[in-house]
Amino acid sequence: MSLIKLVNLPSFGDERGGLIAIESDQSIPFQIKRLYYIFGTQSGVSRGFHAHHSLKQIAVCVKGSCRMILDDGQNREQVWLDTPNKGLLIGDLVWREMHDFSDDCVLLVLASEHYDEADYIRDYDEFIRFAYDDTTK
Ligand code: TYD
Fold first, then answer.
1. Average pLDDT over residues 126-133
2. What confidence tens digit (pLDDT) does each residue in 11-46 have?
3. What whole-number distance in Å separates Cα of residue 9 and Cα of residue 7?
4. Which residues, including other chains, have CB under 8 Å from residue 123's CB and lie 6 or more apart?
5. Catalytic residue (choose from 50, 52, 53, 114)
6. How many domains would you assign to the chain?
7. Residue 50 annotated as catalytic
8. Is 37 within 8 Å of 92 (Cβ atoms)?
9. Is 62 within a domain?
10. Residues 38-61: what's their mean pLDDT?
11. Using CA of residue 109, residue 112, residue 117, residue 122, what is the dihedral sign?
12. Enclosing domain of residue 43
């Protein structure tokens, strides 16, 4: 099964321009408790490099593009987020990296929980230990 789970966000654009609506528990399969956006990323900078114990997120480039890598400890897959109606669902215990931000990129992230540094796994070897524990349960 692919790690890349895309959500097609409902688009209501017309001749006046674009409009995309996002609602909890509808196109987004969780209650949104937090959102944040990453923008003005310097050329050549990559971000992420962490996983979460218990957090669901949807990432969408509302402007520009970036390349996301997801890794569950067994498979590593990538996807370009390059259109504002393409959401990427990122579940628990998935290592994520963000690369190749375009100059104009605005990456919006919707999250199922409030910010909690204790939920982060920022060390890849530690992540592999947790991912391995999880798949052997
Ligand atoms: P960080 O998670 O390192 O960014 P990324 O992994 O996407 O490159 O976050 C950078 C800083 O921002 C870090 O000090 C934590 C803080 N932060 C919050 O306070 N709240 C949030 O919701 C997020 C995502 C980050």
1. 92
2. 999 999 999 999 998 889 999 999 999 999 999 999
3. 6
4. none
5. 50
6. 1
7. yes
8. no
9. yes
10. 98
11. negative
12. 5-9+24-136
Check residue 1 and give its pLDDT. Answer: 82
| Residue with CA nearest ligand 1 atom 4 | 48
Residue 131's alpha-carbon distances to 37, 38, 52, 123, in angstroms, are 27, 27, 11, 12
Amino acid at 93: L
Q: For residue 18, is it within any domain?
A: no
Domain membership of residue 16 (yes or no) is no
pLDDT of residue 134: 60
Which CATH number fits the domain that encloses residue 83? 2.60.120.10
Q: Are 56 and 89 in contact (CB under 8 A)?
A: yes
Q: Is 125 helix (H, G, I), strand (E, B) or coil?
A: helix
Alpha helices in the chain (DSSP H): 124-135
Q: In the chain, pLDDT over 90 holds for what percent of residues? A: 92
Structure-token match 């590593």, residue found: 76
Closest CA to 81 of 103, 69, 65: 65
* CB of 47 sitting under 6 A from ligand 1: yes
